TrEMBL record:
High-level lineage: Eukaryota, Viridiplantae, Streptophyta, Embryophyta, Tracheophyta
Tagged with keyword Transcription: no
Residue ranges of every copy of the PPIase cyclophilin-type domain listed in the record: 305-453
Organism, as annotated: Centaurea solstitialis (yellow star-thistle)
InterPro entries: Cyclophilin-like_dom_sf, Cyclophilin-type_PPIase_dom, CYP37-like, CYP38_PsbQ-like, PsbQ-like_dom_sf
Protein name: PPIase cyclophilin-type domain-containing protein
Keyword Thylakoid tagged: yes
Source organism superkingdom: Eukaryota
Length: 476
């Protein structure tokens, strides 16, 4: 559905995913209200205004030409009058130019404030209106691993160390002369916090995990691939080795943070205490087979295979009810043998599963900077609200909307989101950001996702790690 410029541009366009009719395409998956006042705040000039300005400039040039031509070629003026005219020509020209500029500005202001085209204008030549999202934060996580690290509710000292190192990921993207001095400062800062706050960091780890935590801490500070090694590679100005050591250090930080966060840091609303919930992380492994008998081809080379494995990390810290319901469905075998269907931007599970299977979980989104999720509430990305688990990541996993109300997720239909930045708004955010319960990310098998076609089958789904974090309610 393209926007017709002949229609009123103040109409609201809203297309959402639902379990019965779920369309995620670059042209249809839009949930944006066009507001002229917002456009004036965040846009420079509309296409029509640019055309007006261009036409006004043309009018101004014609006006100048006409006046100057009349003055230069008048047969009624004496030579003395012509000399005087030429003498004052620069001042006259400036005055005419100012008049033309004033007319241009007035026309642009009129066009921005009027909801309809000016009389006599034919809008058919104008390009279609394009919805644009406003985002004050361009550093939205772009990988599942980064989003999952940021979502761990850990010790504040560990978060300070993590933030210092995460910045290196952005600094490494700078081409040619990289800011190694800034990188060195960031790593030294992280190392100082790790050494000075050792007791505080280890005190946050449960007693039965202290030994494991101490080993990970030693690896982070002094081990191969730790902060000392990373500092050496930065001094050598070797970006490839810096990248490898950085990934190793961030992995150690994530492991420590997970040890520091053994359960939920908030209480669930009373009405949801009898729902299944995930009080931490879990990993689900799905084995997918081609429905037409063809093969999956590894992108890095290798032997084509009939079945491919996809692993999804479920984040119960940000979406305990959604992950709990999904994990229980996996344990119950609800997705074994299920068919998949594909759109341009998503891979969906079969919506024909019995609706009585699974819980009717409310929309559950953890806003960035908050300590607990919001329920039955979407986020306003235009106002700067961002989720801890963004949809705008390739391989994000979310629940579809319920058939009846978008305040609830489908009891069992989920989808893999095939994020494409070219289909996004300003800031690289999906048009559907903040509208769905994202509950995890694909960490293994992202290369398999684009090869999945409608009719392919999930042969099996099982929890391979974190089963102990699933809390099941009494039988209904």
């Amino acid at each position: 559905m393209f926007v017709n410029p002949r229609q009123n541009l103040q109409q609201s366009m809203a297309v959402s995913l639902s379990s019965s009719s779920l369309i995620i395409s670059p042209k249809l998956s839009i949930n944006v209200t066009f507001n002229p006042s917002v456009s004036r705040r965040h846009c420079r000039l509309s296409p029509r205004s640019m055309i007006l300005l261009t036409r006004s400039s043309s009018f101004q040039r014609k006006l100048n030409s006409c006046i100057f031509s009349k003055l230069e070629h008048s047969t009624e003026c004496s030579d003395q009058q012509k000399a005087i005219t030429r003498l004052y020509m620069p001042a006259l020209e400036r005055g005419v130019m100012r008049l033309g500029a004033t007319i241009s500005v007035i026309l642009v202001i009129i066009q921005l404030t009027l909801p309809v085209p000016l009389p006599g204008w034919d809008p058919s030549f104008l390009p279609p209106a394009k919805a644009v999202l406003y985002s004050p934060d361009t550093k939205v996580p772009r990988t599942g691993e980064l989003a999952l690290r940021k979502a761990i509710p850990a010790n504040t000292n560990m978060k300070s160390i993590q933030n210092s190192l995460e910045e290196l990921s952005y600094l490494l993207r700078i081409p040619q002369r990289k800011p190694y001095g800034t990188m060195e400062g960031n790593v030294k800062k992280a190392l100082k916090i790790a050494v000075d706050e050792k007791e505080s960091i280890l005190a946050s780890i449960p007693a039965d995990q202290k030994e494991n935590g101490l080993a990970i801490y030693a690896s982070l500070t002094d081990g191969k691939g730790g902060l000392q090694t990373l500092l050496g590679y930065i001094k050598d100005k070797d970006p490839d080795k810096v990248s490898v050591a950085l990934a190793s250090s961030l992995d150690s930080i994530a492991q420590l943070e997970l040890l520091q966060a053994p359960g939920l840091s908030f209480l669930l609303p009373a009405q949801y205490t009898n729902y299944p919930r995930l009080t931490g992380r879990a990993i689900v492994e799905l084995v997918v087979e081609k429905g037409d008998g063809s093969m999956f081809t590894p992108q890095s080379g290798g032997i084509p295979r009939k079945a491919a494995t996809i692993q999804v990390v479920l984040d119960g810290y940000s979406a305990p009810l959604t992950t709990g319901n999904f994990a229980k469905l996996v344990v119950d075998g609800a997705y074994d043998g299920m068919k998949l269907k594909c759109t341009d931007q998503a891979i969906l599970s079969d919506g024909g599963i019995d609706k009585s299977i699974g819980y009717r979980v409310p929309l559950e989104i953890m806003p960035s900077g908050q300590f607990e999720p919001l329920y039955k509430t979407t986020l306003s990305i235009q106002d700067g609200e961002l989720p801890v688990l963004p949809l705008s990541v390739y391989g994000a996993v979310a629940m579809a909307h319920d058939d009846v109300s978008e305040e609830y997720s489908s009891p069992n239909q989920f989808f893999f989101y095939l994020y494409d930045k070219s289909y996004s708004g300003l800031g690289g955010l999906s048009f559907d950001e903040g509208q769905f319960s994202v509950f995890g990310y694909t960490t293994i098998g992202r290369d398999v996702l684009p090869q999945i076609k409608t009719g392919d089958i999930v042969r099996s789904a099982k929890i391979v790690d974190g089963r102990d974090n699933l809390v099941l309610p009494a039988e209904r």
